[in-house]
Amino acid sequence: MEISVVKKALADAVRAAGIDIPRAGKLSCYSHSPAAPNVPAFTCGQVAVDPLGTFGQGNGPGLETLDITCAVLTSAADDDAGQRLLDKLISKDGPYSIRQALIAARGEPGQLALGGVAHDVWVQRIDGYRMLSYGGEDANYYGADVLVRVIGD
Asked: How far is CA 33 from the centre of its chain?
């Protein structure tokens, strides 16, 4: 799998959900880690590659696994409104759910995920609910890390 293509597909999947937040507008979705994101935002960041992610079948190698640490950023201040929005964005479902957007990107049974880019994708874990230093020294945003696992060739 080409990592930049996978990260773009993740950002596109969340963008396609059309998450529109009152008084904040559309959720900004980035396939990279911008120095100054327009919040609220979903960003794709650190990637861990397991080239032997699944066991090989027959004579060929298995599929590789990518663990991509994404960030959900809501506010430049440690305020109640930013934390409540973060709760909605990382919830299992609802009109602001990033998790629901990523689950939808898995496709129908028998289809490839992320518009044909991967075999499967899912949210592995959400943690790090805190003020994140992001971009520059003075760039702090309230947010959380979302570990997304992608399996493919």
From this structure: 11
Amino acid present at 71: A
Domain CATH for 80 = 3.30.70
Structure tokens at 50: 């397991």
Predicted TM-score of the model (pTM): 0.90
The string of pLDDT tens digits covering residues 124-149 is 999 988 888 776 667 788 899 999 99
- Pairwise CA distance, residues 68 & 60, whole Å: 25
Angle value at C-alpha 45, between 44 and 51, nearest 5 degrees: 100
DSSP assignment of 112-143 equals: PBGGGTBSEEEEEEEEEEEEEE-SSTT-EEEE
The count of domains in the chain is 1
| Whole-number Å distance between alpha carbons of 153 and 151 | 7
Q: Which domain holds residue 64?
A: 3-152
Alpha helices in 40-152, H assignment, sequence order: 80-89, 98-104
